[in-house]
Amino acid sequence: MSLWTANEAAAATGGRTQGDWEAEGVSIDTRTLRPGDLFVALADVRDGHDFVGQALERGAAAALVSRIPDGVDPSAPLLIVPDVLAALESLGRAGRARMAGRVIAITGSVGKTSTKEMARVALTGQGRIHAAEASYNNHWGVPLTLARMPADTDFAIVEIGMNHPGEIAPLSRLARPHVAMITTVAAAHLEAFGAIEGIAREKGSIFEGLEAVGHAIIPEDLAVTQILRDCADAAGALVVGFGRDGQAKLVQAKSEDGTLPCRARIGGDTVDFTLQTTGAHFAMNAVGVLAALAAAGADVKDAGKRLGDWLPPKGRGAVENLGGIRLIDDAYNANPTSLSAGLATLAGLQGGRRIAILGDMLELGADEEALHRAMAEDPAMEQVDLVHSAGPRMRHLHDALPPARRGIWAETAAGLASRLDDLVAPGDIVLVKGSKSSKISTVVDALRKSAQTPAFQPKE
């Protein structure tokens, strides 16, 4: 069964189609394109029109373009539109309109992607599930997710992100969710918002896209919870709070041999589940997920059983044994809230020395120095033996640490990675965390490479 016929895509976008083609998928990247995909020639770092010929050679059913690219046969299967991004949005809007299932949208300063994956895994066996790939949550990621959505989808999970004010509401209106969940609100992108209250209002704007009598799933335990509740009330949503209190409540979570058995109350149901991680913040997000799925009409007890199959995505808190050390790879992103959660995960693991390797937290605005310094006072730091760090912002944390906890500081992550033998030893438990642009993942790469050599093995 095709995803889009030429006539359907033309009607959705208002474009002019060449050829009678059928697309089985939608792609924006020739590297991951599959035969039968509609290739969308977006202009980003490179102009997608430069790759149309390659896409067709690799079996694309057709290409969505604003002009016939040089070197491409004028009679090639094309859908020609005035603006490719606007056409992708229209295709996404049409994909959403023809789908009769339930849509769940997720945003938050921390945990969007891992929470989206939790929801996807938890819904296994409850119908046809469609979820955003990777972190496709921006101005092209959301319409792409909707354009890829089969018409017979039962549950769709859409991730919505932002960097600047005014980005979330239009994407939510495009997705038209029945349920919208906010994982948390934290000091991220402060450069653009100035204060956490502004971030909360932007996150709360996700409720503007809710279908009539939609559900707003909000964290109960935040200083800005009332702002989120006000946003939900303004949208006419039914509010479900989750956290240590609320209609969706985490009753118990106790680490046990690398796992986290939990109990939650979701409305009138008691739901037991076990996560394959020790991070308490994951347990809280799981309660929010169960509340969202219950609001969407899913079987919440079955969803709880399925949560045991979920694993944190790469770079987002997965715990692995690596050449004699235990690694928490959380190198994808960082802000004070997520770093605090990462340190708590590190503190909760039993074994050898607890080592934190940290890169700069970016986009924190004028208070970035103070926010880095303040991490020295995080309660979990008491259980951390040594902190290595990289970057000019992390220098403020380095200087604020007591000498016994102060490890190596380097100007760059590469400089830190070059001193790997001085950072960790077999038997250590190691957290690596920082904003993606800090390139602290360089240290993770170095650890993985070293783990493949005989020299980096546990001592007898």
Automatic annotation (TrEMBL):
- Catalysed reaction per UniProt? D-alanyl-D-alanine + UDP-N-acetyl-alpha-D-muramoyl-L-alanyl-gamma-D-glutamyl-meso-2,6-diaminopimelate + ATP = UDP-N-acetyl-alpha-D-muramoyl-L-alanyl-gamma-D-glutamyl-meso-2,6-diaminopimeloyl-D-alanyl-D-alanine + ADP + phosphate + H(+)
EC no. given is: 6.3.2.10
- Looking at the record, the residues that make up the Mur ligase central domain are 106-292
Mur ligase C-terminal domain: from which residue to which, for each copy? 321-435
**Is Cell cycle among the key words of this record?**
yes
Pathway(s) this gene product operates in, as recorded in its UniProt entry: Cell wall biogenesis; peptidoglycan biosynthesis
Q: Which Gene3D superfamilies match?
A: Mur ligase, C-terminal domain, Mur-like, catalytic domain, MurE/MurF, N-terminal domain
So which domain of life are we looking at? Answer: Bacteria
Positions of the UniProt region annotated as Disordered: 1-23
Annotated Mur ligase N-terminal catalytic domain ranges read 24-67
The family classification in the record reads: Belongs to the MurCDEF family. MurF subfamily.
Stated name of the protein: UDP-N-acetylmuramoyl-tripeptide--D-alanyl-D-alanine ligase
Name its species: Paracoccus subflavus
